[in-house]
Specification:
This protein is of the alpha/beta class. The strands form two sheets. Strands 2-3-1-4-8 form a five-stranded parallel β-sheet, with helices on both faces. The chain has a three-stranded antiparallel β-sheet with strand order 6-5-7. The longest helix is centred in the C-terminal third of the chain and has 15 residues. Bound molecules: BIS(adenosine)-5'-pentaphosphate and magnesium ion. Magnesium ion binds next to helix 1.
Length: about 220
């Protein structure tokens, strides 16, 4: 199963990817998570990426394409992968096509999660993430059992630096300008499957699994 989860910030790509990892045992490849890890490690790439991420803009294509190219060659991708947050521009999608063709692989489906703008803002302002295990929560829609601590490991819950409302609005504008054209791109390739992301997390997951059964 080789799939892309496409959708605006807060659409639920990460949430759904984690559920798909459990179901299919294939890795989630989140360029956002990989870039945040590089920022935490203060690697040269992380230091370069940080300024783009803090402003809600996109990290240059050549940086993310390089990361994904290396990641897709690892053994755990042999039976498939879930791309979460990549590609995000037409040049990234073109580069992915080349990388996959070099590896002798084809995409099975591109799942596009659609969610209303105001719901996206509400989801992102209420999102919290465990600083120890990375598990995601939402203060209203998926709250932790105890305020401020992770229900899975007890770690401290933190808010992402780019989840402030002004930055969120910028990320949404960037999505419309640079990433939304990929819906047409993959529609033309016959791969696009739209899923109503306004439904509950579980219902969205069931819709995705139903699509993947036929892909
Ligand atoms: P990235 O980490 O990819 O962020 P994003 O695309 O902005 O998406 P999010 O992670 O914010 O949202 P999500 O769709 O994963 O939603 P989630 O499941 O968490 O990228 C961050 C930055 O890195 C970019 O801005 C850019 O700078 C850089 N970057 C990354 N990739 C790049 C690339 N390819 N090229 C260039 N730059 C790149 O859900 C959100 C919240 O809603 C959670 O709290 C969750 O609990 C809740 N929720 C989820 N589903 C539901 C539901 N069905 N109902 C109610 N609540 C829900
Ligand atoms: Mg995410």
């Amino acid at each position: 199963m080789k799939i892309i989860l496409l959708g605006p910030p807060g659409a639920g790509k990460g949430t759904q990817a984690v559920m798909l990892v459990e179901k299919f045992g294939i890795p989630q490849i989140s360029t956002g998570d990989m870039l945040r890890a590089a920022v935490r490690d203060k690697s040269p790439m992380g230091l370069k990426a940080k300024e783009y991420m803090d402003a809600g803009g996109l990290v240059p294509d050549e940086v993310v394409v390089g990361i994904v190219r290396e990641r897709l060659q690892l053994d755990d991708c042999a039976n498939g992968f879930i791309l979460d947050g990549f590609p995000r521009t037409v040049p990234q999608a073109d580069a992915l096509k080349l990388v996959l063709s070099d590896l002798g692989k084809d995409l099975d489906a591109v799942i596009s999660l659609t969610v209303d703008t105001e719901a996206l803002v509400e989801r992102l302002t209420g999102r919290r993430t465990c600083s120890a295990c990375g598990k995601g929560f939402h203060l209203s829609f998926d709250p932790p059992a105890e305020d401020g601590s992770c229900s899975a490991c007890g770690g401290e819950l933190t808010q992402r630096a780019d989840d402030q409302e002004a930055t969120i609005r910028n990320r949404l504008d960037v999505y419309l300008a640079q990433t939304a054209p990929l819906e047409d791109y993959y529609q033309r390739a016959g791969l696009l499957k739209a899923v109503d992301g306004m439904q509950s997390m579980q219902t969205v997951q069931e819709a995705i699994q139903a699509i993947l059964q036929d892909a």
